[in-house]
Specification:
The protein is an alpha/beta fold. It folds into two domains: about 200 residues, inorganic pyrophosphatase (n-terminal core) (Alpha-Beta Complex); about 120 residues, Diaminopimelate Epimerase, Chain A, domain 1, CATH 3.10.310. The chain contains 15 helices and twelve strands. Strand 9 and strand 10 form a beta hairpin. It is globular.
């Protein structure tokens, strides 16, 4: 059945087999104490504790790495209305491929939110919906943070015409009701972010990390895990992050840029939006409406509404929520969230969207009232079945 399909799924190889002599920087105090301990007790205890540290198990990206190595020209992109995960993963690999001497190009479908300007991409990143260089014949196109070609429209049509091979690099489940990812795509739902996959690709290519690569990859991981809150019960995000911070010396700046750059207008917008939340099913489900007129009034970008649903999900009694952002009359971008009692991916798929089991979305054309009724009904039915 399609639900059991895995594309580009490979068995991992333990890092300990390839890096048996990994060294740790203990700091001057511990180094001195280790050297000055005559009976070796401290040293033995330290070795024991070091041996018990979790080891990073890399994803087996050998197949996609070979495709990259064989390609002379490569194009990198991500889904429309890009976020920190897809953008950071693409930019991290961009800098790595430049170090390899590859002919590489980065392009997004639409405008990149201004909060990501600290990644310094203005000099090389093209935007498809703005004046840009024509897309020329290219050996390989890599699409990050989605496996659904509809999320790349209308750019995807250009890629089909001009790219010899198109591969998706993603950590979302393959949709039961969506288009098939291209053969050879690398999709692994164990990764907490696409940035983690990009990290393993960079390492497998043999490219040394530097500040530009590390900053982009750290942005990807920090964004999608919400600064390591959602890590899929794995230490991988922390271990990768620790290595990246050997090169990125100001992670606090990245955290602020991603999550703490509210303007006065943003706060006023939040006040209005949060003041009209609707609750259903004994406060188990919340509906948040974001009107285009509100975004326009406060001079905000659509991306400024991305975190509203995260505020709402902190409500203790709540089990699920839907945010409905009006982009045009009767055209809405839906974001669905669940605390884990029910999955919401199926609801998103029913509406032509996708995402993760407990965080998904869709673009829907209909009236606000009709969409709200349809989504709330499905959420409450699932919660009733789950006994929540």
């Amino acid at each position: 059945m399609k639900a059991n399909r895995k594309v580009g799924f490979f068995l991992p190889i333990p890092l300990s087999q390839s890096s048996p002599n990994r060294r740790f920087n203990l700091g001057p105090d511990l180094e001195d104490r280790t050297q000055s301990t005559d009976n070796g007790l401290f040293s033995c205890c330290l070795d024991f504790r070091m041996n018990r540290l979790p080891q990073l198990t890399p994803l087996n990206v050998e197949s996609i790495v070979k495709q990259i190595q064989d390609a002379e020209s490569i194009l990198l992109t991500t889904h429309k209305q890009c976020d920190g995960d897809g953008l950071g993963a693409a930019l991290g690999l961009y800098h790595a491929l430049k170090k390899m001497g590859k002919s590489v190009r980065a392009i997004t479908v639409d405008e990149v939110p201004s909060k990501y300007s600290f990644l310094n991409f203005d000099s090389f990143l093209d935007i498809y919906e703005q004046p840009h260089r024509p897309i020329e014949s290219t050996d390989l196109a890599l699409i990050f943070d989605t496996n659904d070609k509809r999320q790349i429209a209308p750019l995807y049509g250009e890629l089909e015409k001009n790219c010899k091979n198109i591969l998706f690099v993603d950590h979302h489940p393959v949709l039961n009701k969506g288009p098939e990812p291209t053969l050879g795509s690398f999709i692994d739902t164990r990764a907490a972010s696409t940035g983690e996959i990009a990290y393993f690709i960079v390492k497998a290519l043999g490219v040394r990390l530097d500040k530009e690569i590390a900053r982009a990859l750290y942005t990807s991981i920090a964004f999608d895990t919400q600064i390591f809150r959602f890590i899929k019960s794995s230490s991988a995000s922390y271990l990768i992050g620790a290595e990246l911070l050997e090169f990125e010396r100001d992670p606090e700046e990245i955290h602020r840029k991603l999550f703490s750059t509210y303007s006065r207008e943003k706060v006023d917008f939040l006040s209005r939006t949060l003041g009209r939340i609707e609750y259903y099913g004994e406060n188990r489900v919340a509906v948040i409406e974001i009107k285009k007129s509100d975004l326009d009034e406060f001079g905000l970008h659509a991306d400024d509404s991305r975190d509203v649903i995260d505020f709402v999900m902190h409500i203790q009694a709540l089990q699920a929520a839907v945010l409905m952002r009006e982009d045009q009359p009767n055209k809405y971008k839906l974001s669905l969230r669940s605390k884990g009692k029910i999955e919401v991916l199926g609801i998103a798929e029913n509406l032509g969207g996708g995402g993760h089991l407990y965080a998904s979305g869709a673009y829907v054309e209909d009236s606000f009232v009709n969409i709200r009724e349809q989504v709330v009904t499905q959420l409450l039915q699932r919660l009733d079945i789950a006994g929540s």
